[in-house]
Amino acid sequence: MKILIDTHTHTVSSGHAFSTLKENIDHAKEMGLKGIGVTDHGPAMIGGANKLYFLNQKALPRKSNGITIYRGVELNILDEEGNIDLGGRFLKSVDYGIASLHLDCIIIREKSKITKAITNAMKHKKVKIIGHLCDPRLPFDMEEVLNMAKKEGVAIEINNASLDPNMKRYNKEDYLKLIKMCNEKGVSVVIASDSHYCENIGKVDRALELVKESKIDEKLILNLDMKRFNKFMEIDL
Question: Which residues, other chains included, contact 118 with Cβ-Cβ below 8 Å and sequence gap of 6+?
């Protein structure tokens, strides 16, 4: 099993990552990938990219060094209503958004409110992926979230960085439960590095190990196949 697209990567434009886009692209080539999602943090994150950055992603070529470039954003879910930190023409300009919960950007901690924040965020047209769930500090109702993901056509991310035992959001047991439930409900997933340094592009070993343990139907893993991924994301390249 090998991913062809790393759907969640960061550049220096995120404010706390350490590689340029060119460095990321070149390492993606070395890793045998076919594409990467440039998903720098939205403006609500400390040091995140400004709105104009996302609007100007049209300046990027669709291919560089043989790697397809997907124009994305990691959006911050801001509240129980599912508001996110990019909208209007700025959000329309990207191929897809990953909506994620970050402790610095959302103050609610109650399970019911976190669940509503995630499910409401899925209603935004450009939100196609929910990023790094299962943070033990941000509990949510798994069944309710996955039912909404199925209804809205949103994929669930299996985030390799979050499966590092040194990460505070590490929660392997719940992640495994989440993947198994995705399989039962037919909810699509993506496997991603969440790279903040170029040498982690395409590095998804922990995520792959968990996915194999879950015995999920590989047809639900979008980024094993570029045509499947593009169709789900509604991207016409």
Answer: 77, 82, 99, 101, 130, 133, 140, 145, 148
